[in-house]
Amino acid sequence: MNFRYKTIRELLLHCEMEDLVIALDHFDEDFSEEDPREVLVEKLEKAQKAYPTEAFYMLSQEDLALLNTIKKANGMITVDMNEENHELMDAVDRLLDLCIVTSKFDEDSELADVFVSEEFLSVFESYLEPERRSFAGYLDEAARMVEGALYYYGALPLEKLFELVHTNHGNMDFTFFNRVLSYKLTLDGLYESVDIGDTEYILAADYQDFYDLTEISMKEKLYGYRPLTREELLQAGDPDFVENEEEFMDLYLSMEEAEVSEELTEDLFYQVPEEVILLMFLNFTMDLARKHPHPEVIVEEFFSGITLSQKESIKDIRKRFMDYVNKVARWSYLGYSFDHHPKKKLENKNVVSMKAYLGRKNPS
């Protein structure tokens, strides 16, 4: 079977305008959204040919493995895009974000034909060697550690973040650490860099929804950053990570008969299967509670949004709810939980109600 797309240009001509713009942005190419399609295609074609190294640093080991599989299949494979196969779906999405591949999706079967051009594989061939793919896995773990640190702290100095990764990841040097921060698509949109005085900080993307940056130094003096192990960083960097998962599931099962209000269902969960709405709402609430300076506000909003059956004791469930919240890491305490943080108080008047926050964020 021959390649459907021989050249990079042929494949790019089948990409949507929006996809071309996203890819050019990732390659940091100058363009105008008013540019005609031909101009965007020409610029992206040049970028893909000129910057294979940059593309390598953007992609994950899983992405490279998928590309290698497509290469062995002469430029086309069929992928099951079922939601349960989310890691493979994520890999396809990242390749689509760079317009390295294009796809044809069948909604009925949930199957997608994914194509890559013969020319791109020729340009990129050396980056698909086993040693390079293994090195990409090394960089991926560093990216997961960055995510793990942000999960616990919300914000920390760049120097502190590098120290964490360097110490827990084979003495990674700053050059490769910086490439992970600068290029990895798995970190895209998850953080921002902000200078506070003379210090550069890395913040979770939504950190400033809850905290004033001037408070960070005060927290550092009051609590200090919770020490984290390599295992803790990698676990928290997993998108499916749940702290104290067994206790969390016990809490969910204790209220599984509860009903989420019709207003929340229509506004926020209209695309979510009914059987998982409560679990998604609980997950979202817990994530918000560990970030918020006043989690009790979030807990109250949660209970105002559900109806419990008579057999369930509201008082008992509220207690179990807060017991769980008090055991998970909080940004307020720089990674410590309420139950284990240094016993000092930090006042914070910057209260953001859950309703206001949900107005800006759609958890579905």
Task: Describe the protein.
The protein is mainly alpha-helical. It has 3 domains: 8-128, Arc Repressor Mutant, subunit A (Orthogonal Bundle); 136-236, Arc Repressor Mutant, subunit A (Orthogonal Bundle), CATH 1.10.10.10; 245-358, no CATH class. It is 51% helix and 10% strand. It contains 18 helices and 8 strands. Residues 344-351 have low confidence and may be disordered.
Blueprint (SSEs and pairs):
Blueprint lengths: L7 H5 L4 H10 L10 H14 L1 H7 L2 H12 L3 E5 L5 H12 L3 E6 L4 E6 L1 H7 L5 H24 L1 E3 H11 L5 H10 L7 E6 L2 E6 L11 H7 L7 H7 L8 H10 L4 E2 L1 H7 L8 H15 L3 H10 L1 E2 L6 H12 L28 H5 L6
Antiparallel strand pairs: 1-3, 2-3, 4-6, 5-6, 7-8
Helix pairs in contact: 2-3, 5-6, 5-8, 8-10, 8-12, 13-17, 15-16, 16-17
Entry keywords:
3 domains; Arc Repressor Mutant, subunit A; mainly alpha; 18 helices; globular; three-stranded antiparallel beta sheet; 364 residues
Quick recap of the structure?
With 364 residues, the chain is mostly helical.
